[in-house]
Design goal:
Blueprint: E1 4-8, H1 13-24, E2 28-33, H2 36-50, E3 55-59, H3 65-79, E4 84-87, H4 102-130, E5 134-141, H5 152-172, E6 177-184, H6 191-204, H7 208-217, H8 227-238, E7 248-252
Parallel strand pairs: 1-2, 1-4, 2-3, 4-5, 5-6, 6-7
Length: 259
């Protein structure tokens, strides 16, 4: 029987790319996103490419407990198992600490940390019940290892994700469920990074056209992080080849972060 992946935040950008990459690798994919129409479009594309029944889309708010419970219940009803849960939902607001809005702080914690907790908790219930082991992988950031100027809410939540990953790994080891965080470098072409360019330009005192090169110059390998880089590492840690690894925060930063 095909393994099943649940990708939270799978309806757009990196999450959508991961959904399609996992489908190409033989997974049946539950595409979950706050925007249910986007989720269904990605699922339809997978079904057209790899065969009907290989994917379905579902609207879910990762920050709402009942929404997450209903999401995993739907995956269970359709596929009967969850072998891999990828948490790819995220949000960021750039502002200096003396002007950082409280609602932006709370939203960062809710989406980047609480949502991860809720989705991991509910997915693990099905993994434990099925007794086949499993994989939980959070899409994190280098900002979860080093502080990020004018991004205190995002960085604090991502640091929290590392601690949560390690704690989940300890809780779930007896069930052969491994848990990891992928610490991404700058996804320069992502809508999130592009939307923050005006704020980064102001922070750095440069034009918006100069922002990307400044971030590239910070990387030893002189390149931004690409979606394919993330998929390559994710597929390894989701595989049986990585069965003896758990609780890790894996850098995908081109050498910008090395611990």
């Amino acid at each position: 029987m095909c393994k099943t992946a649940l990708v939270v935040g799978g309806g757009q950008t990196l999450g959508a790319f991961l959904c399609e990459g996992l489908a190409a690798d033989g997974y049946r994919v539950a595409v979950a996103d706050l925007n249910g129409d986007n989720a269904q479009q990605i699922a339809d594309k997978i079904n057209q490419t790899y065969g009907e029944g290989m994917a379905f889309g579902i609207a879910a708010d990762a920050t709402d407990e009942m929404s997450v419970i209903n999401m995993t219940k739907s995956v269970d009803e359709v596929f009967g198992r969850i072998d891999l849960m990828v948490y790819s939902a995220g949000t960021a607001t750039a502002a200096k600490i003396d002007t950082f809005p409280m609602d932006a702080w709370q939203r960062s914690l809710s989406v980047n940390l609480t949502g991860y907790f809720l989705c991991a908790r509910e997915a693990s219930k099905i993994m434990i019940r099925e007794n086949r082991g499993g994989r939980i992988i959070q899409i994190n950031s280098k900002s979860g290892k080093v502080g990020s100027k004018h991004n205190s809410g995002y960085s604090a939540a991502k640091f929290g994700g590392v601690g949560l990953t390690q704690s989940l790994a300890l809780d779930l080891a007896e069930h052969k469920i491994t848990v990891h965080s992928l610490m991404l470098g700058n996804l320069l072409q992502s809508p999130m990074f592009q939307s923050l360019k005006p704020q980064y330009a102001k922070k750095l005192g440069v034009s918006e056209e100069e922002v990307e090169q400044i971030y590239i110059d910070k990387v030893p390998l002189k390149a931004g992080c690409d979606y394919q880089d993330v998929l390559n590492v994710l597929k390894f840690y989701a595989s049986e080849q990585a069965a003896y690894c758990t609780g890790q925060s894996i850098n995908i930063t081109g050498g910008q972060v090395m611990f």
